[in-house]
User: Fold these one by one.
Assistant:
Number 1:
Amino acid sequence: MIIKDILKSKLIKRYKRFLMDVELDGKIVTAHCPNSGSMKSLIEEGNVVYLTKSDNPNRKLKYTAEIMQLKDGTLACINTQLPNYLVEEGIRKGKIKEISGDIRREVKYGEENSRIDLLINDNIFVEVKNVTLAETNLPSVAQFPDAKTTRGAKHLRELSKEAKKGNKAYNFYVVNRTDCKTFKIAEHIDPDYEKESLTAAKAGVKILVYNTRIEIKDNNVLIEIDKRLDQYK
């Protein structure tokens, strides 16, 4: 995936979850921040934020925050709408060896009014999560979630039910920052999510963890699924 014509800005503050004030070309503008998580370990004044600009006259906020660059150079994709596209692209290109077939997106399913991110061949259920948390005590370990997530727990319950029916079910974690080598569940942030993860594993839900390659060149961002990561032990 290529994000074209990005604009370089500096973070001033993030607030109300979906709003971000940045300095762009010497002016302060408000950008849409498409991320419902805490963005813990990413939010620090002065970090570089790469934006895209919309020409849609009906949009209230013309700028969208896409990528953040930390002071050590680490790049992280903060737009949580992108991982679904990245995984779909990875499947179609054969980069994700565990999954193949015809893909449908956002299909209604389950008993809790859910939509599966990707449904393959009508019997492979894939829920996709964007992972951007890495804490100072485990600096190269990506962790999820970065805040309590009842929605994430619901998705695990739905996947468990599909696995028990004999379908394939995957919880797919996209490690969307460039400095991590392994992955773990952040049980200290959301112990209930960890419990649901263990229950789902017993039911037959598989965990897949892949990182992404993120490169910035000539005002464009290249971002794509790279390789599978191990879980932290």
Note: The first strand starts at residue 2 and ends at 3.
Number 2:
Amino acid sequence: MTKFFLQLVGLSLLAGLMLSQANAQDNQTESASDTTVYISDDLYTFIHAGPGRNYRILGSVVAGTAVTLLQRNDEEGFVEIIDDKERTGWVDNRFISDTPSVRESVPQLEQSLQQAQADLEQTQQQNDLLNQQILDLSSRNEQLQTRLQEIQQQHGELQQQLANIDNKIQIEWLTRGGIIALGGLILGVILMLIPRKRRRNDNWM
């Protein structure tokens, strides 16, 4: 009977001790909103069943993994999280970061780099197209300049031909006028040299 009583007292004390530890843990645990935090880079950390290394290990969380922060236990230096495998547990607060890790940033940076490269290629293609259009316009301009010079040369030749024709016409008119004048002069001289016939004098005896 005494032994049973001692066992009962021992169980009661143990239950009271566990209850007091649970209350103390609840008092020491700081509630936190469900925010996203990250496991520090170049590390992996174990996830425990409670706020301390003495609790059972549930697994490990790879460095750079985004996890959901549930609450903090500042006295033990642990935080309760939900990891990417939907496991709820506690990890050392030293391995938690508020900023995205390199693991999270690298894919975004690679995507941004790919987009920038695609934009650069598109810009280069547009630049090549514009350069080709400029070359085509320059070639067309040279052709038009050459054609303009040919037309100007033809115009000059036609002007010279017209001037030559005018000079020729003037010379012809002068020549004809001279011939006519000379003919008139010769005709006048001939008329002066022809003797006039004497009139018959019917009154002579």
Note: The beta strands are 29-39, 44-48, 57-62, 66-73, 78-82, 88-92, 96-97.
Number 3:
Amino acid sequence: MNMLLHGVKYNDFDIQNGDTLEADAFGDRQFDAVVANPPFSADWSAAAKFNNDDRFSKAGVLAPKSKADYAFILHMIYHLNDGGTMACVAPHGVLFRGSAEGKIRQFLIEKRNYIDAIIGLPANIFYGTSIPTCIIVIKKCRKEGDNVLFIDASKEFEKVKTQNKLRPEHIQKIIDTYRERKEIEKYSHLATMQEIIDNDYNLNIPRYVDTFEEEAPIDIHAVMGEIKELEAKRADLDKQIEVYLKELGIVE
């Protein structure tokens, strides 16, 4: 339905109804582009048979049974051709969770060098969930093999009622930054492989893009002056209240 609403004719797509992890409907087919927004941290069987499945076996470990995020990512990579590009929306947990997911992340970076960019999106831009998400961009044949681009676009949005919305200018900034692989203070950083190794293959965006805004210094003398002024006003009010109470005969 979503494709029809966006003008894609039914004879231009092939929709398969089923569990894509348990029963791969695409066989050995590969594609120039893979774009997906799989269910976040869904359950899957993680059955022992998948240790011999070409989609997952090369990573040496299966995605956790309670978090299928990397199962979907590895499935999509398997169907991406050598010159293709893949973009997957995922929860931020895939960037830093350890154990099996940490090993898969290390495999994709160290052994395959597939991860091209990590793009952090604003929270609350998807209906049904308010959690912040990211886009993982993957290429099998990367030209910039010695770095990964990190973009923190989490603060670039417009508030529309209860949802946050990316405006065209926000999207264009992300696209331009990615295409030019440029560094923008507090927005993007081109991290070397050594930086990523030093961070133990943790791809959490704040480790690479510093968005900290330094607070203005506090003038203690000015604050003390304001406090004294407020205390003087309060003393005057206390006197006025006392006068009113005496006039009313409440106090002597």
Note: DSSP finds seven helices and eight strands in the chain.
Number 4:
Amino acid sequence: MIKAGIIGGAGYTAGELIRLLIHHDEVVIDFIYSTSNAGNAVSDVHQDLLGTTDLVFTNQLNNNVDVLFLCLGHGNSKSFLEKHQFSTNTKIIDLSNDFRLIEYARFRESEFTYGLCEYQKEEIKKATHVANPGCFATAIQLAILPLAVQQLIKEDVHVNAVTGATGAGTSLSPTTHFTWRDNNFSHYKAFTHQHLGEINQTLKQSQQDFNSNVLFVPNRGDFSRGIFCDSLY
């Protein structure tokens, strides 16, 4: 059995990861680390797991797990790894954006591999450190990377995408409240979204003469989960 540890277990990303792992025949969750919820039942926070697990959050680490998932907020994964040492045999999968770009992919003696399975499945199989791609980045790249692989993108790519409220995480903000989201549709970070960096990176790797723009307008939808994405070329 693969022994897994999860860091930052109270957020939406961790909740979905826990659900997947507890139903995986070859994985056992060794610990779910959360300083704010230590001692509390996981199902108290992730109530959709009520009746499916008796796991409890902890503030104790096992540095010898087979695989470690980092479900921390953006910018926190690197600082966590700098403060905590894990076995050289532990594979690390980061779900934040800390290591996705090539210039930030190196950590100590290891290099994070960009974890878009459809793009570089074989490299991921061999990797010891994986940087999971962003949500918008995944949807957009699955649409346009096949064109880049065939060297077909010669003009700007226009992308319009809509995300549900869970994409913003569990922290409250004015734009995540029900009264804002309900019957509402709004754009944000037009042409400047943080996922553009990794999108342009893989496009350039797939099509070396790519020098067009990805004109991306992200939107907030009035639903909880999922992404709808249109990419026009």
Note: The longest helix spans residues 135-149.
